[in-house]
Amino acid sequence: MSAFLRIVLLLVLMCPVVVNAQDIKPDTDVLQDIPVLHEGRLKPLDSFARLSLQKISGHTKIGKLSALDWLTLTMFDPQNAALIDVIQIENGHVRHKMQLADDKILFNLAALNDGIQKTQSDVITLLEKPAEDLTADEKALINTHEKVATLIMLMRSFSGTLPLNIELPEEYAEQVPAQPSFMDLMQIEQELQEDVKALVSQKGADPQNFTPAEDAMARTGFNLQTLRAGGESNNLLRIIPVTWEGEQEKWASPWNAILQEDTTPAAEFLLALWTDLAQSYRNNDAELWQQISTDIVAETTAQAQENVPAQRFAVERIYRDFQPYLWITLLYAAITIISALAAFNTKFASFQKPVIALTALTVLVHSGALAARILILDRPPVGTLYESVLYVSAIAAIAGLIMHFAKRTPLALTAGAFSALLLLLSASMFEPAGDNLEVLVAVLNTSFWLTTHVLVITAGYAMCIIAAVLAHIALALGKNHTAMRMTLQNNIYLISLVALLFTAVGTVLGGIWADQSWGRFWGWDPKENGALLIVLWLIWVQHGRVSNRFKPASFLGAIAFLNVVVAVSWFGVNLLNVGLHSYGFTSGMAESLIAFCALECLLIGGLYWRHTHQKGAA
Amino acid sequence: MEKEPSPYKKLLNSIVDADTVFWIMPPLMVLLIVGTMAQRWLGLWPAIDQYFSTFIIWAGPVPLPGAYILLGILSITLLFKFLFKSEWKWNKSGIILSHLGALILLFGGLLTAMTARESYMLIPEGYATPYTYSYEAREFLVFQGDTVLARYDFENRDEWDFTKLPFEIEIIKSCANCEILKRVETENYDESLPYQSMAQFMAFEEKPLDPQPETNLTGVELKLSGTSQDGLYIAFDGMPQPIEVTHNDQNYRIILGKAQHLLPFEIQLDDFVEERYGGTEIAKSYHSDVVVRDGDIEWPYRIEMNKPLTYRGYTFYQSSFDKSERGEATILAVVENQGKLFPYIGTAVMALGLLLHCFLAASIQRKARP
User: Fold this and answer.
1) Which range marks the domain in which residue A381 is found?
2) Which of A533, A549, A578 sits opposite B22 (nearest CB)?
3) Which of A213, A301, A320, B273 has the greatest number of beta carbons closer than 10 A?
């Protein structure tokens, strides 16, 4: 950490001030489709910029600067970027510890300098502790240091190609251009370091014994050494296709390419283009900027060992621009309210047809959003807990629409939209901290089993949830709506059968996947047991109905309770952090789950009591 | 007057009644929840042993039914229902098929529990082996030259009989999972005793079993008499050097290790590849390029995640790997399972049954609609 900070401060001192952030108005959009390898996936630079800015600031824009504007400024003008309030510190304890103002949460790197230095040793100690033993304040402190490290790494992305504001001893200055970059200085680096070594062995390490020329030489040697050390670990911005031998990675950062001994003319050419781009940025030369940007996109695509999917990049940009899940959530909220009003209040009966159209449109957009994720990730959209929530919410809404048309189920649209709304609101709890368009670990990286087992079982969860919501509604209906309740009861029975079909088949398909993966069909693992619990509950309810142990009200109560069973089985088992299936573990949501289950128990209990104490209740 | 059903029929009716399933489900669900929660604190395998792979669970002094009993009752109910009380009508075909599917799954589970044998192979790149190793079982072996003279299961160590050996062995101490200590730091260290080989420096102390059986360090402390190097020895799982003694000019080796199983063929690892997502430590895929060699026949095969190799009743899965200075090695899980096909058949039958039942139920409702 301190090494990074020292390096960036060194850069700040060494780089000449050229422009102010406010004066810069280059068209950064031309950079948006430059491919960058980030978190295991090739994505457009626009996505990388948004994700980096979000990680550091919690936002996807800073003032008038778009994420790409900010990233460009950070890469090409680190001195000014260090003065932008971009590092988010929400934790008051951390702000206090770093002696920062308490009336704001965004800070610039320069303002954090002292605080980072002061807390550096604390963070080193904290990193030794097991993650589960860390307090919220301690996690926030570590997180702040991580944000700073990320920002510094980005600021240093091109520090190897940017001109350095250093004074070289005369004998070296003659060998390199005026205002040389680290790349230029690499040709004299070995000679200079050997001279410094000889000087130290002759006069010792105390600079007081050096002449001014020797002192300048020793300082340059130290600066180059520091820059090299920082560059060696700077591999965040992987934008250079690897064209040299012996490297397993297909993409490298500018620093990786600069320090590569067997670099190729192709990589050098691309680096030169980036250097020219930085120059055009600092000179505010829009024409040159535009031209070089286009050249970089074309050259990078040509040099890449793998196909750079332009269409996928376009879909990803649209997906991130549009933020579909925000709109879909709002639409489901509107559908829930309007459809319920249309069902119960004759004044709003005319809303029935428009709300059907609105539901169809929302489901279409929702399906489109899922299709976009499939296209971007090139796999089924159910690889993580977060993704499964998005998928289940879509299935619930679609099921509501189908039930409305096929079975004339009263309030099916309301139940479908409300189920989808609840799920989408809870999705944020499962959203990963960085990119929610994630790559999958090896055992999950199979489209066949994701398509068969996961799609089937999660569709079963959706059917359970919609059945449970309808059961809540049926229990809540007063004696004036007896006919509606009877129809609902019959339809809930059918939906519960469909839920049993999907969950039972999905569960055994999971067993077959496990058998294919590691030879064990059933291992009593928490994830397997969770899925089985839903199946057993549904079997119990069906047999209770057949054997007349469950009267209609009890049947509805048991179906309503499916919400709790599904929540425990789907999310609860991941809290145990144990099992053969070592993926998908979550933490920090036990309280929410317990609160949900307790509220549901109270609600179902209350509705059941009210229902059975109505006059003439079944 | 209606004839009173016989006691046999009464019993049969009560066994196949939906009521039986209704009453068996709550304890099964409670067992599932408790057994799952217990994994958090007991670890996966001990919790499975205590709650699922058992007939009885002891809640203090109170015996409660374990998964075997509950699933046994469920299986009997389904079997009797299917054989004697199925209503062979079209509108019941979904239910009949669903029950049959569940029955096949349960029968497959029983067969697997009775016959499946799990072990693993560790093969370094460029090497071939016909041996698999048990995760749990350990054995104590005495070799004369390269021939196994005697083989003892560690689990039955109280019954070991060394009388047929040409020299005497006395087991002084043993532990299923040992903590290694420095000999000189042990409480009853006596420097006058004739400690030999590694026993001069090392001693054992019993510690609780590890939830992962393969990681338990099994060990014994023994006394040898009648050999040319009598004294006190230790042997433990994975000890780099076996105990080596001579008797009547014959060389003997004593080894304690994971129980081995000899396959009727051998597998050679040509290459193990671990692929990661670029710029991350996240594994994208693993695979082992192997050659299966059975007598004069040999052929190459790539074992991948989700793509095992099955041959002569054995299935080999990409389970793990080992990387050290000596090179890369693959770890393959090896399973022999006679009930392997049943889940596939059971799933198909059950899925068809439930699908049919859904359609039939919807159709009945549609007809009943006024």
Assistant:
1) 323-612
2) A549
3) A320
